[in-house]
TrEMBL record:
Residues 24-85 form the DNA/RNA-binding protein Alba-like domain. SUPFAM superfamilies: AlbA-like (SSF82704). This is DNA/RNA-binding protein Alba-like protein. Residues 9-25 have a biased composition (Polar residues). The lineage of its organism: Eukaryota, Viridiplantae, Streptophyta, Embryophyta, Tracheophyta. GO terms for molecular function: RNA binding. It comes from Corchorus olitorius. Residues 1-25 are annotated as: Disordered. Pfam families: Alba. One of its GO terms (cellular component) is nucleus. It comes from the Eukaryota.
């Protein structure tokens, strides 16, 4: 009985949802925000964390791929990892289970990221001065 009590005292519970709430993860929806909202958010996350994970389900997958390609084509990001899977979901409460496609794209800062971001910030300052 002592062994059981000791085992219960040493028990650690890991919350699987905690691993899903990474500070550098962006869960993209293709209906809630405009595309460049996510592009700019991804840039900010890369500045803070050196990498960003873009995640989407179903129809939003095309949006995530577009965001990743914009960042890569502008020289801001490099692709580190792409994971695809399916997730079991319910259509409505008590509805039948449906499988949805899921994608996760991990992007890291490119070598020129800081240089490109500084140039963009300087350009923005010049534009604001011209408008004043």
């Amino acid at each position: 009985m002592e062994g059981l009590a000791e085992g219960v005292n040493n028990l650690s519970i890991t919350d699987s949802s905690a691993s899903n709430n990474k500070k550098n993860r962006i869960q993209v929806s293709n209906t809630k925000k405009p595309l460049f909202f996510y592009v700019n958010l991804a840039k900010r996350y890369m500045q803070q964390h050196n990498e960003v994970e873009l995640s989407a389900l179903g129809m939003a997958i095309a949006t995530v791929v577009t965001i990743a390609e914009i960042l890569k084509n502008n020289g801001l990001a490099v692709e580190k990892k792409i994971t695809t899977s399916t997730v079991d979901m319910r259509e409505e409460s008590g509805g039948r289970p449906v499988q949805k496609a899921k994608i996760e794209i991990l992007l890291g800062k490119s070598e020129k990221f800081d240089e490109l971001m500084a140039a963009a910030a300087a350009e923005e300052v010049l534009d604001n001065e011209e408008q004043s």
